[in-house]
Specification:
The structure is a single chain. By secondary structure, the chain is an alpha/beta fold. It is 36% helix and 17% strand. An eight-stranded mixed sheet has the order 1-2-4-3-5-8-6-7, sandwiched between helices. Helix 1 packs antiparallel against helix 2, helix 1 crosses helix 3 and helix 3 crosses helix 9. The longest helix has 20 residues.
Length: 316
């Protein structure tokens, strides 16, 4: 998640358009009397943590961070892209320039589904220069990746088209996601029925916060958490400070999850969620200690499962 004071950065460059494959129908097949949506799979938290371990290793090998324009960011993108390519996604790398450095977005389309109705899930892949950014935002990036891989493992065939994204230069003011949205034609923007954002979902002293932007998306997340007996609150700390903002500003429905940054957990929140009152949700926010040890496994697991639930529910 970016700092509350936006960085002064500009984005320029050219992008290759993603090739989208549309799904066909089975000729002569009799319609079922009632469509039954496929159930979302459980997302193995061990798999998500394995991705985080790789991102930590990448940061360690590249000056301790995965920041925009640095070798650690490009290595992170290459890691995610290789996993998606092997799983059968159509991937596109979108290039832009910010602060005199080259940045990249990674877009992954799952073949099939109605490309006139696109459900997107995304996260920013960059860290700040101060540290490896494992909660902010390896946690969201790893969970989005593992959900995409679960789509492939299950050979999920949704009614809508699924697209996943990993954004560059979020920490400089949502540069990558803004560049992506601005590069879309009005027609292609109108095809996105919802964008789901995941920025910091494994905070060590976690809360369970749901964006209150689009009512239908908000209800989907709240339904999931109610089903596992976890109370939620409306997300306010990061409002407008992450990659959903450019989508929202363009009139695209948005939603997402958040487990807290440098705001302080109250006594009421500690009573509801556990953890320590009077301390930050993530005391290592934007610091060198945001390492692979700066993750609450329970929060990561619950939020990853909620992510998958929403992707399946909203694309069915």
């Amino acid at each position: 998640m970016k700092l509350s004071i936006p960085g002064r950065a500009s984005a320029t460059a050219v992008v290759a358009a993603a090739a989208l494959l549309t799904g066909g129908s089975i000729a002569g097949a009799a319609p079922a009397p009632e469509a039954v949506a496929a159930a979302a799979p459980d997302i193995p938290v061990a798999n998500v943590k394995a991705h985080l371990a790789q991102l930590q290793s990448i940061a360690t090998a590249n000056g301790g961070n995965r920041a925009h324009g640095r070798a650690g960011y490009k290595a992170s993108l290459d890691y995610v892209k290789a996993k998606l390519d092997a799983a059968g996604f159509t991937t596109t790398v979108q290039q832009f320039t910010s602060g005199g450095r080259t940045g990249y977005n990674l877009i992954a389309d799952w073949p099939g589904g109605d490309t006139g109705r696109v459900v997107m899930a995304g996260s920013h892949l960059d860290s700040v220069t101060a540290g490896p950014g494992i909660n902010d935002n390896g946690s969201g990036s790893a969970a989005v990746l593992e959900t995409a891989l679960a789509v492939a493992r299950s050979n999920y065939q949704p009614t809508k088209h699924l697209r996943f994204a990993w954004w560059g230069a979020e920490e400089l003011g949502m540069v990558g996601s803004r560049y992506y949205v601005n590069s879309l034609t009005a027609a292609n923007r109108s095809k996105i029925s919802g964008y789901l954002n995941f920025d910091m979902i494994g905070s060590p002293n976690p809360g369970y916060f749901v964006y209150d932007d689009d009512p239908a998306i908000e209800k989907t997340f709240k339904t999931y958490f109610a089903g596992i007996g976890v109370a939620t609150e409306i997300e306010t700390e990061g409002d407008g400070r992450s990659d959903h903002a450019p989508f929202k500003n363009a009139g695209i429905p948005v939603g997402g999850l958040f487990s807290g940054a440098d705001y302080i957990k109250t006594s009421a929140q500690a009573a509801k969620w556990g953890g320590t009152a009077g301390k930050a949700f993530d005391a290592c926010y934007h610091s060198s200690c945001d390492t692979s040890s700066n993750i609450n496994d329970t929060a990561l697991n619950r939020n990853a499962d909620a992510l998958a639930y929403a992707v399946w529910d909203l694309s069915a």
